[in-house]
Each structure stands twice: as C-alpha cells, then as structure tokens.
Write a structure and sequence with these properties.
The chain has about 500 residues and is mainly β. The protein is built from 7 helices and 28 strands. Helices cover about 15% and strands about 55% of the residues. Strand 25 and strand 26 form a beta hairpin. Helix 1 runs antiparallel to helix 2.
C-alpha cells in the first residue's frame, strides 16, 4: 500500500506540474516553473539535455527523484516537449512509456525494489491560464502501470501486476501562493487490475486476483508540501496545509483465488457502486469508505460448505477525528453501516434446518459523534513517547445518534447522549464522570428467545436469566413483544437508573 501511494503521488505531481505552465510564457519559462513546483514537494527534476528548436523546448532523459521517509522513488522519462501553440496555450508531450523504481528500506522488515513501467501512449496535455493560476487539461485512451520487476531482500519474486485506466480525461488547476494549491478532476470509463503471484522461496502456492471498476470519478484539492519526515505533518497542518480527495465508482467486479498443495480459497463478487472520501486539515481527519449492492460467494478448504453466498445492501465506515493538539474540544465521529446482510439458504440450513426463524436480512448500524481533544501532537513520535499513556486525550461529549441491530425477526434500537467531566476521575474509578441518558427499544426479543430455546440453541435456564435481566432494565412498550428502557447516569452523584429505578 505504501509503495502504491508513493507511485501515485509521484505520477500525480508530475502531471500536476504540467499545469504549472503559463499560456503566456515560453516553453523555457514553463520548464523553470516545473522545477520550482517539484522542489516545493521535495522532488528533483534533472534533465539530461535541453534543446530549443523554434517554438519547442525539448528535455531529454528527464530524471525524477524523491525520498519520503523509508521510500525513495526514481524515474527517467526519455523526452518531454513544451510547444507554444500560438493561440495562448502550451502543448506538453511525453514519451509513451517510462520506468519508475521504488526502493523501500524499512528500519524493520524486508528491503524491496520495485520497477514499474508506465505506458501512456496517446496522452494529450494542454496548459492554459496565467503563471499564478494555471489550468491543465489532459486526456488519454488508456494509462497503464505494470510491475516489471520485484526484488525482496536481494531475491527476485515472480509477480505479475497490471493496472489500467481506460478513456481517461481530466484537468489540474495549479494556483501559486504561500503554498502551491492543486485542484484535480479526473474521469475514467474503467479501471482494471490483474495480479498474479507465486509463493516465494519455492513454495507451491499461487495467488490470482482481478478487479474491475466502471464509471470512475475522482476529485482532489490540497497544498503541495515537502515532507521528508512524517513528524513534520503536525506543523504543516498548523501552517495551513490541507488535502481532500473523493473517488466514486459504478458497477464493480472482483475475483480472488489462492491455492497451494494443502489449502485453497476463492472469492468472487460484484458491487453496484462505491466511494472513498478522505480529507485532512488542522480541523480534522475525515475518512469514509463504502459500497452498495455487494453480492459475493466464497469457497475453500477451510469452509465447511461447498459455497458460502451473501449479499449486502450497504457496507460503510466513516471516521472524523481531531488531529492537532488542542486545549479546546473538537468534533469527532464514528459510524459503521452493515445494511441488509443476507446469506444463502444453505447457511441458514445449518443454523435453522426447521425454518423456525425469519430469514430476513440482518442490519447493524452504529452512528456516534462528540467532542474530544488530544493532549499531544499525535504525528510526533517523541511527543507520543513522553505522553502519559493513561490520558492521551480528553473526552467531553458523546452523542449516540443511532444504534440499530436487526436479526432473525428481532430489532434493538437506541439513541442518546452523554457529557463527561474531565475533572472528576474518582466517581467512576478513573473514568471521566458521565452525565446523560440513552433510550433503548427492543422488538421481538422474547419471541426470538422462545424460538432459540425450541431449537435447542439456548438452554431454558439461560433464557430465563435473560428474561429476568430484561425485566430489570426494561418495561413493556407499545406493541406486541416490545420492551423500552431509559438508562440515565448522573455524574455528580454516581447514580445509574433504568426507567427511573436506581440501579447504582
């Protein structure tokens, strides 16, 4: 994953730099702008030759290099040409293919060298605008990145990996200032990835994977910033650095297959859509990933069925988290959505051969938000080492926006909220004293217990104990087989009550 991010960053920066050209300046001035922008992110551009012929400046054997923590990236483009079109724009052309080498030298773990070949025949790029605000448009019938060589600790590994974007078009807008700002938009009809790898060290295993994503749309915005040391990130955010990216896709398919002389595993599936949304600034880290319309099957030597099939209507995860040290509370949030999980009747047959339970899809939703703050710079390893592990941050408020669990005909739902007194760590044995309440509602719980007892999955005495606990914490609600409960906590006195009856 880290190597792939490095490759994407290097390629994106190279394309973005093409937008640094001014439509009103010469090719030579455009080239100088490229080098200045590269320097701002710690990338070095070193030409093997520079030739001016009429309205075209040609750079030969352009060497790109960058070092990021434990990763170094190098590549050589045979030729880059800047041509004044005579209409207020500059056309930029590049060699149809070139190699990039990533060298990974971690403090712990294996060293690796990866050689990638980038093929972009037919790529057309045009820069327009002015030196301080440049728009760079590009399109290509395809762009391909393939792994041509992988060496791990001096031994070459057999790996076939190929990534292709088809019918690609988009633009970069580069704005100069105290920090260089880059806005990107990109669309592609399809992305395919094919990966094949033999087990290293002469093993008999083989992994094959294939993925296809259609109707890709991606946008990003942010500041170009040189960060050779990750510990500098906290200061960069404080200085105004920010970045945001969003990617969506339509119909997708995926296939994984692994087998060796003892084990085998296979998974095939599809989705109707998905998204990845990431933003980072001094305000917060925001992360969201999700898919809709998942449909997949699994089989393997460790699965006690010929095949496991399942569908998921929606699968998602989101996180909002403060990232800077602060004495003031900041927003945070966390959410998980697993909506309409359905499994095949073959699986239900193992659990409920008599068909006593409803086989409706299951749902789990947890949605929370609140206020909290860090007491140290989380991006600084030295600060983290010096911080008291028992109190790295402060929790001031937690809102339970939604909790929902529906399965086998029963549904538990709830919502509520609590505030926390960080000055009172005694009332609740070292935890900040909470004050607030949560409302819970259970529908179909007793009916589900009866069916589980009848099926022999739960002994009668355990079911009786569960009913006694529900009677202690809940009261009958509106509707058949409905229980409701209001759990309240008073941080000032340490009191905990259910439906007005004190429990502690």
């Amino acid at each position: 994953m880290t190597q792939r991010k490095a490759l994407c960053g290097s390629t994106a920066i190279l394309l973005a730099l093409a937008g640094a050209a001014s439509a009103d300046i010469t090719g030579a001035e455009v080239w100088e702008n490229w080098k200045a922008a590269a320097e701002s992110v710690g990338q070095t551009l070193a030409p093997g030759s520079e030739t001016q012929d009429g309205n075209t400046l040609t750079i030969g054997d352009l060497k790109m290099s960058m070092t990021m923590d434990e990763i170094s990236v190098e590549g050589v483009i045979g030729e880059v040409a800047f041509r004044d079109n005579g209409d207020g724009t500059v056309a930029i052309s590049m060699s149809p293919s070139y190699d990039i080498t990533l060298s990974v030298r971690p403090e712990f773990g294996e060293a690796a060298d990866i050689t990638l070949t980038v093929a972009q025949e037919g790529l057309a790029m045009t820069a327009s605008g002015d030196p301080g605000d440049v728009t760079y448009d590009f399109l290509a019938p395809s762009m391909n990145i393939g792994v041509s060589k992988l060496v791990v600790d001096g031994e070459e590994v057999a790996l076939d990996a190929d990534f292709t974007l088809s019918d690609l078009d988009g633009k970069y807008v580069v704005t100069s200032g105290d920090m260089t700002e880059v806005l990107t938009e990109m669309n592609a009809a399809r992305m395919t990835a094919v990966i094949g790898m033999d087990e290293p060290d002469g093993g008999q295993g083989r992994l094959d994977a294939a993925l296809t994503y259609n109707d890709i749309a991606a946008t990003s915005s942010g500041s170009l910033f040189m960060m050779a040391d990750p510990a500098m990130l906290g200061q960069a955010l404080a200085d105004g650095m920010s970045t945001a990216s969003r990617l969506t896709h339509g119909a997708a398919t995926f296939k994984f297959d692994f087998r060796d002389d003892r084990d085998a595993f296979a998974m095939n599936g599809s989705a109707t859509g998905g998204l990845l949304d990431v933003a980072l600034s001094a305000d917060a880290l925001r992360y969201e990933v999700g898919n809709t319309g998942l449909d997949f099957t699994m089989s393997g030597s460790e699965i006690p069925l010929p095949e496991v099939a399942a569908t998921i209507g929606e699968l998602g995860f989101s996180l909002v988290m403060p990232v800077t040290q602060s004495a003031e509370p900041q927003d945070f949030g966390f959410a998980v959505r697993l909506v309409d999980l359905g499994v095949s009747e073959m699986i239900w047959g193992m659990i409920d051969a008599g068909g006593q339970l409803p086989h409706d899809p299951a749902t789990l939703i947890v949605d929370t938000s609140g206020k909290a703050n860090w007491l140290f710079d989380i991006f600084n390893p030295e600060a983290a080492a010096e911080m008291d592990a028992e109190m790295p941050g402060e929790l001031h408020a937690l809102d339970i926006n939604e909790v929902r669990l529906a399965i086998a005909g029963a549904e538990l739902s709830g919502m509520g909220g609590f505030t926390f007194d960080m000055k009172d760590l005694q009332t609740f044995d070292g935890l900040p004293a909470p004050t607030g309440s949560i409302d819970l509602r259970l529908v179909g719980g007793n009916g589900l217990l009866d069916k589980l007892v009848a099926m022999g999955l739960i002994p009668e005495d355990q079911a009786m104990g569960a009913r006694m606990m529900m009677g202690l914490f809940a009261r009958p609600g509106d509707g058949e087989d409905t229980l409701v409960s209001k759990i309240e906590v008073d941080g000032a006195t340490g009191a905990v009550s259910a439906n007005g009856q004190r429990l502690q």
